[in-house]
Structures are given as structure tokens and as C-alpha cells.
Specification:
Length: 92
């Protein structure tokens, strides 16, 4: 019996489609929160709350808002600041 179906696949196009979809899903996961509280900031950075307060918490460039007794940080701006702050740290 002969071939019933022959399928040609463009692997490059499939990889690009996969990357595009993966990028969309990762962007969604990264920014699913609009604000982080201090505990979430600690979790996202893998830094203790004391370390955060001792190093960059009081940097005037670090956006933060006090709502009642809770500190809130815009997630996207916090992430951008953290990348900048980290690049400024001396390397040993």
C-alpha cells in the first residue's frame, strides 16, 4: 500500500511561532501583579526584607507608596529600578 499522507514542516517557522507564544505567556506571568507589597518584593528578588531596607529601599528613585500600614510598589517600575540598581553595584 502506498503513502496516504505526506507532511512537510518548516521547522524555523514552528520555532518562531513557539517563541512568540512563549514570550506572550512569560510577559503575562511576569506582570500579573500591578503592585508588589514588601513580602512579594522580597520573594521576587530573593532578598530579605532587612537587606532590601538596608540597600535600596530608601533610594529616592525607588517608587513606593504607603497605603495604611502597607508599602506598595508598582511591579514594572520596581523591576526596572532593580535592574538599574543592580548594574550600579560594584563588582568584586
Amino acid at each position: 500500500m502506498g503513502e496516504l499522507l505526506k507532511l512537510n514542516v518548516d521547522e524555523g517557522q514552528i520555532e518562531e511561532m513557539l517563541r512568540t507564544e512563549l514570550r506572550k505567556r512569560l510577559d503575562h506571568l511576569e506582570h500579573r501583579y500591578t503592585f508588589w507589597d514588601l513580602e512579594e518584593l522580597s520573594r521576587q528578588t530573593h532578598m530579605s526584607i532587612n537587606f532590601i531596607k538596608d540597600t535600596f529601599f530608601f533610594d529616592p528613585r525607588f517608587k513606593k507608596f504607603r497605603v495604611g500600614r502597607k508599602w506598595l510598589f508598582p511591579a514594572k517600575e520596581a523591576e526596572e529600578f532593580l535592574l538599574l540598581w543592580l548594574s550600579e553595584q560594584s563588582r568584586h
